[in-house]
Write a structure and sequence with these properties.
Layout: E1 3-9, E2 15-18, E3 26-29, H1 32-60, E4 88-92
């Protein structure tokens, strides 16, 4: 998976990175490398928060004493968002 982000130089000299797939997901850095590291962290944080909301919703939708539950399974996926090796395609504005 390739994350497509935009990159723009702000008037104050900072580099601004935005992930258009999620409106409002914007970060910045003193240089392009830092801006891309920060937007990757913002994307990962957003996805983690959404995951926690989904787990909460699953818990609320289960009838009491149904014998079903949520089991946490830890594994990593190649190219997962948190991996620094996930390619980022930078689009200049």
């Amino acid at each position: 998976m390739v994350l497509h982000v935009t990159r723009e130089e702000a008037e104050d000299g900072w580099v601004v990175a935005e992930w258009p797939a999620l409106p409002g997901c914007v970060s910045r850095g003193r240089n392009e490398k830092e801006a891309l590291e920060n937007i990757r962290e913002a994307i990962t944080g957003w996805m983690g928060a959404e995951d926690q909301k989904a787990i909460g919703a699953l818990s609320l939708n289960r009838p009491p004493n149904c014998g079903c539950g949520i089991k946490r399974i830890e594994h990593s996926l190649p190219g997962a968002f948190a991996e620094p090796s996930t390619p980022i395609a930078v689009h200049f504005r």
